[in-house]
Amino acid sequence: MDLKNKQSLSANLSQQQIMGSSQIQALEILQTPVLELQSMIDAELEINPVLETEGQPDEMVQSDQNESDDFINKILELDEESRYIYTGTKSSYSQEDEDKRAHYLDSVVAQKTLQEKLSEQLRFFTLSKGMQECCDCVIAGLDHDAYLTAHSADLAMAADKPVEMIDAAIKMIQKLEPVGVAARSLQERLKLQLQRKGLEGTILYTAVDKYLDDIAKKRHPKVAQRLKLSMEDFKELVLEKIQALNPKIVNEEVSPHEYISEEVTAVEKDGKLTIKLNNEHLPNLHISKQYRDILKDADSSEETKKYIKDKVLSAASLITMVLQRQQTIHKVVDVIIKEQANFFLKGKEYLIPMTMEHVAKQLDVHETTISRTVHNKYIRCKHGLYPLREMFSHSFIQNKVDKSNPNDKKTKSGEDDVTQMQIKSAMKDVIDNEDKRKPLSDIKIAEALDNKGLKVARRTIAKYRESLNILTSNLRREY
């Protein structure tokens, strides 16, 4: 292969790699929720001096990676009043709202960790150097729920201190706030909280100390008998007081980007549905006039011009991808609200089976595009906030009795337009209305659903119940 062909092949491979990288970035932007996308744009603004957010755009220019020089020329030809590349988004927040939000985000960044808060409290005690080191070791050994999972002997080995000193350090940390920190079990945490209230030696303390496992397993009559209490007194003196204790003492700080924000809102007006994209977190972006002028300046070095051109292409590529993302979300959600119109107008019991493949065929795109579009994204409607992924569900296949022959008790396989969400909703309704003193078993729940025309296997009932975080019948019993 001659040198010319090698150079051509190398250029083609390089171009394919660039295109591949661009496509990967476009897919990542499509899949990214709006609040995370905001942080991605902020990161690009930090490293790309060509990209700016100020000003009102008047003209939109989209980049073509295959015609980069032509695109740069388009940028140079724009006059001062129309030099912008427009994302098509505009915040509806007032300046006061923006200032409040910025202040909130800054305050979240400044939140202290549990370890830092505990270390600060220790400064109010006069401790020897050795005890301070032991306390620091105990604090470092706390897990995310503020439990101490490491054994005293292991901590002693890590700190190179006697076990007795580590045990004393544990007692010291347990005196700090929040009450129950450095407990080695839930039982010890609740006992620490009762001790701090001066309730050691009471019936309540005895119940937590000796019968907490039985109480958790709803063996209430047995515990009441052991404590020589009537069920009424047991509820008042033990159950209600235990429920007032705090098993989870760490309030985890949530990052601003962990909050849920809808990507789109389904707006109903006169019985018709329209779509409103949430563009409030996406700024207007444009190419800086300052760098455009540098490109036009004959005295600018080729190295400088190449750097600016690369940044202009990068900025324009980002803007184009954000635009494409918003357009794709709009198209996909438009199909969703048309297919699931009764869900948005009447309620979740009207959700019908719909697959991503079905939507993909209507839009003539791949099914994975639909999956990325709805990934971790939410839609708001008058019934609440829902994950877009919940709009998709296969038909629930159930066995139906052949009612055409009343003497035929056999069943045949059939498919009704029933979704998993509808089955779960019907299940929850049955459980919510059960006799709490005699809660229904999974078999009884299946029978209740059968009476509603929904034939569901017991194993399916158990799986759906667990997904709804509903306890088994013996743990749901109330006395």
Q: Which range best describes the helical content: under 10%, 10-25%, 25-40%, 40-55%, 55-70% or over 70%?
A: 40-55%
Mean pLDDT: 80
Identify low-pLDDT runs: 13-19, 56-67, 78-93, 399-416
Number of helices, counting only DSSP H or I runs of 4 residues or more = 21
Q: In total, how many beta strands?
A: 8
Distance between the termini: 87 Å
Strands ordered across the widest β-sheet:
3-2-5-6
Biggest β-sheet description: 4 strands, mixed
Q: Which structural class fits the helix and strand makeup?
A: alpha+beta
Rg over CA atoms, rounded to whole Å, is: 32 Å
Strand portion, in percent?
Answer: 5-15%
Overall shape: it is: flat
Order of helices and strands: HHEHHHHHHHHHHEEEHHHHHEEEEHHHH
**How many domains comprise the coordinates?**
3
Task: Give a quick rundown of the structure.
The protein has about 475 residues and is α+β, with helices and mostly antiparallel strands. Helix content is about 55%, strand content about 5%.
Architecture overview:
By secondary structure, the protein is an alpha+beta fold. It folds into three domains: 19-91 and 260-363, no CATH class; 114-243, no CATH class; 397-476, Orthogonal Bundle (Arc Repressor Mutant, subunit A). The chain is 54% helix and 7% strand. The chain is built from 21 helices and eight strands. The chain has helices at 3-31, 34-47, 68-77, 95-109, 114-122, 129-140, 152-159, 163-173, 186-196, 203-216, 220-226, 231-243, 289-296, 302-339, 341-346, 356-363, 367-374, 420-432, 442-451, 458-467, 473-476; strands at residues 51-52, 264-269, 272-277, 286-287, 378-381, 384-387, 397-401, 411-415. It has a four-stranded mixed β-sheet. It has a two-stranded antiparallel sheet with strand order 1-4. The protein has a two-stranded antiparallel sheet with strand order 7-8. A hairpin with a 2-residue loop joins strand 2 and strand 3. Helix 1 (3-31) crosses helix 14 (302-339), helix 6 (129-140) crosses helix 7 (152-159) and helix 13 (289-296) packs across helix 14 (302-339). The chain is flat, with a radius of gyration of 32 Å. It starts with a helix and ends with a helix. Mean pLDDT is 80; it is low at 13-19, 56-67, 78-93 and 399-416.
